[in-house]
Design brief:
The chain is an alpha/beta fold. It is built from 6 helices and 10 strands, in the order βαββαβαβαβαβαβββ. The chain folds into 2 domains: 116 residues, HUPs (Rossmann fold, 3-Layer(aba) Sandwich); 80 residues, putative n-type atp pyrophosphatase, domain 2. Strands 1, 2, 3, 4, 5 and 6 form a 6-stranded mixed beta sheet that branches. Helix 4 links the parallel strand 5 and strand 6. It is globular and about 45 Å long.
Length: 215
């Protein structure tokens, strides 16, 4: 099947993409939502320059859905229709087990005319995180929820030891509830690692984020 990947640049969407490719499916597009006001992707805060670097390293075309909160769903559906023009028959998501996310994903795909695929659905959260790490992916922590994880976690690359520290701090091991978000810069699906550097840390009160830039 030719498919679009709803891609955040984070670990779960990267692992889902990896699974789909290994199962013999062909990615035709990365679909990413982009906050026009902030000039960064929604939720993971990735700059357009870095998104382009990811697309080039994965060798998969990028569809950027530029939107605000009021037209978020509509922008995604428009992006999915663009993916259909590239040959997509379905769209894959990296969600694991939150039912509201599943229903929302299905609705977007249904409205656009695509099948909805969730390669990680209902699997153990910790096991998925460990699969990513042992599979050779490199994921740097980009954002943390301030009341659970402190800023010392920002910029660190996920390891099994770091996941233990994350869990000990009171977080879900894979951050599925929003405790942390990652940026994946290398792994078996990348043609070459994305060379990155870390910038300033910004405190948004409810969460903290570190800037990541391509070198």
């Amino acid at each position: 099947m030719k498919f679009a990947m709803m891609y955040s640049c984070g670990k779960d969407s990267s692992l889902a993409l990896y699974r789909m490719i290994n199962e013999g499916h062909t990615p035709v597009a990365l679909v990413t939502t982009f906050n026009e006001e902030q000039g960064r992707s929604w939720f993971h805060g990735v700059s357009e320059e870095l998104l382009i670097s990811v697309s080039e390293s994965l060798d998969i075309p990028l569809i950027i859905c530029r939107c605000g909160p009021d037209n978020y769903s509509e922008a995604i559906e428009e992006g999915l229709r663009k993916a259909i023009q590239l040959g997509a028959e379905g769209c894959a998501f990296g969600d694991i087990d939150i039912e509201d996310h599943l229903e929302w994903n299905k609705q977007r795909c249904n409205n656009a005319g695509l099948s909805c695929v969730l390669p990680l659905w209902q699997e153990d959260r910790r096991a998925l995180t460990e699969e990513l790490i042992h599979g050779g992916f490199k994921a740097a922590i980009k954002i943390v929820q301030s009341d659970i994880l402190d800023k010392s976690f920002l910029g660190q690359t996920l390891t099994t030891d770091l996941v233990e520290k994350i869990t000990a701090a009171g977080s879900d091991p894979c951050g599925e509830n929003g405790e942390y978000h990652t940026f994946v810069y290398d792994g078996p699906i990348f043609r070459k690692p994305i060379q990155i550097e870390f910038g300033m840390t910004v405190d948004f009160k409810s969460h903290m984020a570190i800037d990541i830039r391509p070198i």
